[in-house]
Design a protein that fits this description.
Blueprint (H helix, E strand, L loop, with lengths): L1 E7 L3 E7 L6 E8 L7 H14 L1 E8 L9 H17 L2 E6 L3 H11 L4 H27 L2
Parallel strand pairs: 1-4, 4-5
Antiparallel strand pairs: 1-2, 2-3
């Protein structure tokens, strides 16, 4: 079963997809938009990716605060989740994404990616980390 992982931001959506066995996450792309409220093309692109990869579920990063409270970004993420479910007819599961962007930045720093280039990749790597965390949990719970 293939699963799509998303890191939803105000201007970008990082996208990752699992392998067919649901073991590993690979980065796919970063969807960029000019305005935070212009989501039609973003939703259409996600729908196209889900279809082309044969995705059966979507995991959407859920940006809780470090103290486990929910803020404005959580509300926007819930709204986006509802739009995704309506557009794709797929189940969308929220997954705690705390510190994934920090971890993505750390991975790139350790890999020698220059500071000015990290912004180009951080959302895709964050999506990979969100999806991989979900896959690790899901596979661990099936054993």
């Amino acid at each position: 079963m293939r699963i799509l992982g998303l890191d939803f931001g105000s201007h970008t959506v990082g996208v990752a997809v699992s392998d067919a066995l649901g073991l590993t996450a690979q980065g796919v792309e970063i969807i960029r938009r000019k305005s935070p409220d212009k989501l039609r093309q973003t939703l259409a692109r996600i729908q196209a990716l889900a279809s082309s990869y044969g995705v059966e579920k979507i995991v959407l990063g859920y940006p809780k605060h470090m103290n486990n409270t929910e803020g404005e970004r959580c509300e926007k993420t819930k709204e986006f989740k509802a739009m995704l479910e309506k557009r794709t007819n797929l189940a969308v599961e929220l997954w705690d994404e705390r510190l994934t962007t920090v971890a993505a930045d750390q991975i790139m720093m350790e890999s020698g990616v220059r500071r000015e280039r990290r912004k180009e990749y951080v959302d895709k790597i964050a999506a990979m980390l969100i999806l991989q965390g979900y896959l690790d949990f899901w596979n661990g719970s099936r054993q």
